[in-house]
């Protein structure tokens, strides 16, 4: 089956990091601008950005570099807009975009102003209808599509935001992010993610913030088992988050716990292979989870950093695991049940999939 097919089917993206999803061309442009200003030595930088396969530690070095390039308000707004346009262009109908609110006092950036820049980006997307991002004057939960482009070429995309806690952060910083998420609920923030370099930081540091988030009704997803860390994996599963990402290094007992808990897993095939977290697709836990009908959703993780797209992830899963068109369509549709948005959005998404099923004649 060709890529055109995977692009044409509606899809749901639940694990996408904003700064990992930036277009290569934008990153290179930003690097060149800083290079010309003498702020950055760009010798070899293009090679780093264009490199195709990097280990997990190399990835986190790259993220530090990306953050140097992107962490000012105007750039955050720009990349948000571009990332949403890119996802919408390949028929993602619901996107949960996650990002780590950042502070940079030297340029007057607070976690709140960083997030305001993200929201501005969402409001300026002009190729699509961004649904459910309330405008300043609208009341909570009102649907306010951002309009401006020609109706016939428009696609509709629902966006929700997750605020990420970086594993480098302190308990106080993590609590600040949760507090911010609560303040921004009216602006499409629905939950909290725990991410960052998995060999950095301790579970106990983040637990108070994650517990607080849960108590306040925010939904939580955790990067779980990206490296072998038995104690942490067990503690994460005992926390019973609403979803987990990756789940690569679970041992037998953890699998049992995961399977009986029915916690949905965000699967990022290319990311796992590129970072050498999983040796080959033949060894990927997708197969086992899929065969036993465990809730799972295919995601990109960092479409820019790993040069992939959600359509490509669908294509890879279908060809590597021998799954047919109809089954892949159902896999995408099943993800509606794991989104962090409310029932009205879920109902709308079901209708979108029903209508696509009729049109595509699967
Ligand atoms: C863990 C990851 C990640 O938040 O600046 N991030 N954390 N594992 C991964 N798998 C490879 N990919 C990305 O987006 C970039 C940040 O997301 C997290 C890292 O903290 C990275 O710095 P934002 O928008």
TrEMBL record:
A GO MF label: metal ion binding
InterPro entries (UniProt xref): A_deaminase_dom (IPR001365), Ado/ade_deaminase (IPR006330), Metal_Hydrolase (IPR032466)
Record bears the keyword Hydrolase: yes
Pfam families named in the record: A_deaminase
Occurrences of domain Adenosine deaminase (ranges): 10-352
Family assignment from sequence similarity: Belongs to the metallo-dependent hydrolases superfamily. Adenosine and AMP deaminases family.
Protein name per its UniProtKB record: Adenosine deaminase-like protein isoform X1
Species of the source: Nelumbo nucifera (Sacred lotus)
């Amino acid at each position: 089956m060709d890529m055109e097919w995977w692009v044409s089917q509606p899809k749901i993206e639940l694990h996408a990091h904003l700064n990992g999803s930036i277009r290569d061309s934008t990153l290179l442009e930003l690097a060149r601008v800083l290079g010309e200003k003498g702020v950055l030595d760009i010798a070899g930088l293009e090679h780093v950005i264009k490199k195709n396969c990097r280990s997990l530690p190399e990835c986190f070095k790259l993220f530090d570099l990306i953050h140097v390039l992107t962490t000012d308000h105007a750039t955050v707004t720009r990349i948000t807009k571009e990332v949403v346009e890119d996802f919408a262009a390949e028929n993602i109908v619901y996107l949960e975009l996650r990002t780590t609110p950042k502070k940079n006092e030297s340029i007057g950036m607070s976690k709140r102003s960083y997030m305001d820049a993200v929201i501005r980006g969402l409001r300026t997307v002009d190729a699509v209808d961004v649904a459910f991002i309330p405008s300043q004057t609208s009341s909570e939960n009102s649907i306010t599509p951002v309009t401006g482009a020609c109706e016939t070429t428009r696609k509709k995309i629902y966006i929700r935001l997750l605020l990420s806690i970086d594993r480098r952060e302190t308990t106080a910083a993590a609590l600040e992010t949760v507090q911010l998420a609560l303040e921004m609920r009216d602006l499409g923030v629905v939950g909290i993610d725990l991410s960052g370099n998995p060999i950095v930081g301790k579970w106990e540091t983040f637990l108070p913030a994650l517990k607080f988030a849960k108590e306040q009704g925010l939904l939580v997803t955790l990067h779980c088992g990206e490296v072998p860390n038995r104690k942490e994996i067990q503690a994460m599963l005992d926390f019973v988050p609403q979803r987990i990402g990756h789940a690569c290094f679970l041992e037998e007992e953890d699998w049992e716990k995961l399977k009986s808990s029915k916690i949905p897993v965000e699967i990022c095939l290319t990311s796992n292979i590129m970072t050498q977290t999983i040796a080959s697709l033949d060894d990927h836990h997708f197969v086992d989870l899929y065969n036993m009908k465990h809730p799972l959703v295919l995601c990109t993780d960092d479409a820019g950093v790993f040069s992939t797209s959600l359509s490509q992830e669908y294509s890879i899963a279908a060809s590597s695991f021998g799954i047919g068109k109809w089954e892949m369509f159902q896999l995408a549709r099943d993800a509606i049940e794991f989104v962090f948005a409310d029932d009205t959005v879920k109902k709308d998404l079901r209708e979108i999939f029903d209508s696509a099923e009729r049109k595509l004649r699967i």
